[in-house]
Amino acid sequence: MTCSRLRTARLAGCAVVASAFLLTSCTTSDSGEDNAGNSSQSPAPSSTRMATEPPEKKLTEQAQAALAAVHKGMLVEAGAERVTDGIHTEPGLSEGKTYQLSLVCAGTGSAQLVFQPANAGAKTRIPCDGSVVQQRITADKLVRINVDGSRGATGVVAWQIDAR
């Protein structure tokens, strides 16, 4: 075979391999199931990740159950977010009233609670161990609540604001 024919054969071989790879990638769903129906095998789930990280849904349920146990007064606002996303909210609070903010972080690491303006409430560390952290809020003006996860923190932060 001449040098140019050898190059052409190699290029054709690479094209076939690349096409097969792309075809396989396009026919496989995110769940690992073959959409073409030609394969009876699916990838095994990662047992390491499942054993070390409880599912997000389970963490959310745990955090919300902890909040339900301390709920007092009239609910104003509540929610749950991934620790990595954080909480960034400006609840509609009435000026001059006092509120109770309750937070639970379920997962690993910790998160930091900060208010704007700073005199609305105290800056607080929230451990991601499922314990409830409560903070009294006095609404003089618009209040912004920020909760950001520390480096490497994982899990869910749930919160609720009750009128007293």
Question: What would your notes on this structure say?
Answer:
The protein has 164 residues and is of the alpha+beta class. The protein is built from 3 helices and 6 strands; from the N terminus they run αααββββββ. Strands 1, 2, 3, 4, 5 and 6 form a 6-stranded antiparallel beta sheet that branches. It is globular and about 40 Å long.
Q: Name the shape in a single word.
A: globular
Number of separate strands: 6
- Unreliable sequence segments: 3-9, 11-51
What's the story with the biggest beta sheet? 6 strands, antiparallel
**Computed structural class:** alpha+beta
- Termini gap: 88 Å
Task: Output the keywords.
164 residues, alpha+beta, 6-stranded antiparallel sheet, 3 helices, 6 strands, 28% helix, globular, disordered N terminus
Summarize the structure.
The protein has 164 residues and is an alpha+beta fold. It has three helices and six strands.
